[in-house]
Amino acid sequence: MKALLDTTIVVDVLLNTAAQGDNARRALRRYDATLLPHYAIKEFKAGALNNYIWLHTKICQLPTWAEALEAVRRTIGFRRNLPSTALQALAQFESSIERITTDAVAARYPGMARGQMMKTEAQIWLKQHIMRAWRKRRKIASAVTASLPCYVERAPVVQPNGLLVNDPVKCNVPDCSLRKRYLNRLNDIESLERACTQVAKNEVVRRRRALKQLRRNPGRPLEEKYCRWLGDAVFALECPADAVVLTTNIVDHRPLANAIGREVEAP
Amino acid sequence: MVTEFSVMPAQVQTAKPNGFSSTPALHEAGSIFNATAGVRVIDQRSGVRPVPIEDLYPVAAGRAQLLGTARALLAAGSDRLRRAHEYLDDGNDVGADYEVSLFQGDIPELFCCSSISEGLGAVVVAMHHALRNRGPSPLTSDQLNCLSFCLDRLTKEMFLSYDAALDLIDELENAQLNVNPVEAAALNSILIDESAA
């Protein structure tokens, strides 16, 4: 059996250090072959990896770990409720090296004042976590499939000032390569479009618009935003007949996959 | 070790805060003796007065001390892990774990030297969490081997490339050592969920 990995799996395998990450890594071993669509790499870099890189930047620029966490509260917490237990655990950073550093040792290193050590450690850990995740991205699957010729897959770059630059996260081309790729899949596109009518979520409404654009105007250049809006539909379209879509987001993927005769599985 | 130089007072004053002196003799001496504890400057008019080398070459001297400390800590750590191996081979699990624990106790100071190189810092942080996350369990022979390998590499190459450091961290993970802080799970619940939102 083969599995096509969606972005939630890629993120869990590469970045998630909790139980979900272990589950995803274990799940990969269930299949004879695992396929990683290029689109998942693009979504991974523009999504979760970009968030980690953003936090690294905040840690670099703010004087303390506490202020970096405050930036998280004010930026991400501004839009949604963040789990207070998670924020508390991060603020305390009980496993940090600073917690076991004696005053006598700290006093000998002026650059390692209390409060500064946590920031330095978080910065060092986060950077290696980001860079190792990027290095491993193509190794987690048996093969990378459905190459996107318009997407430049470039590693995050370390600037001389220590900040990581994550460009590009978009293709910046006037016509997305997915349009030509799906020219002969218009029936499937229509089925996916119908599957999207059952849900009123913003993400699904946008996906339906992108599918409609592809179906109605297959000869017209497809803008970048439509590529992004296609989202989960790409995984249904890229899943071979002898494979399943492996995802943690069964709810969103199942109607799409089933609409064109594919199945989904959770880790 | 104290070294004597004969210079005019004006020449001493020309030592720059960047650690280099406009005086050739001092500059040259700095490159040779920058790890020494101090320099005795012979003032030709008022006699001898000691000047700490940090005052003459603040950056170079501070860094040299850092290098010296890191080198000593790494070498000591390598020795401890080698002894831990020997204990393990002799079936002395307590002795082995004790040596590992003593090495673990030196990690905070090693971390204080992490500005030496990015690679060093990354591996030291990974080793800290690898050892912390093992909890009460002793290291297996494979894990000890892997830790020794990393430490020996750092001892030989404190300035190892960042990529090489990431390779070492991969090795630690391959030995079933968890190199991530436990709080990283909390970070996932914020940053990964945000990307899915």
Looking at this protein, list some descriptive labels.
heterodimer, A: 267 residues, alpha/beta, 5-stranded parallel β-sheet, two-stranded antiparallel ribbon, 14 helices, 7 strands, 53% helix, B: 197 residues, mainly alpha, 3-stranded mixed β-sheet, 3 strands, 65% helix, disordered N terminus
Short overview:
By secondary structure, chain A is of the alpha/beta class.
Task: Provide an overview of this structure.
The complex is a heterodimer of chains A (267) and B (197). Helix content of chain A is 53%, strand content 9%. With 267 residues, chain A is of the alpha/beta class. In chain A, the strands form two sheets. Chain A has a five-stranded parallel sheet. Chain A has a two-stranded antiparallel ribbon with strand order 4-5. The radius of gyration of chain A is 21 Å and the shape is elongated. The mean pLDDT of chain A is 94. Chain B is mainly alpha-helical and 197 residues long. Chain B is 65% helix and 9% strand. Chain B has helices at 9-13, 24-33, 53-56, 58-89, 93-112, 118-133, 141-156, 162-174, 184-196; strands at 2-7, 38-43, 47-52. Chain B has a three-stranded mixed sheet. In chain B, helix 7 (141-156) packs antiparallel against helix 8. The longest helix of chain B has 32 residues, at 58-89. The chains are: A alpha/beta (267), B mainly alpha (197). At the A-B interface, helix 1, helix 4, helix 6 and helix 8 of A face helix 5, helix 6, helix 8 and helix 9 of B.
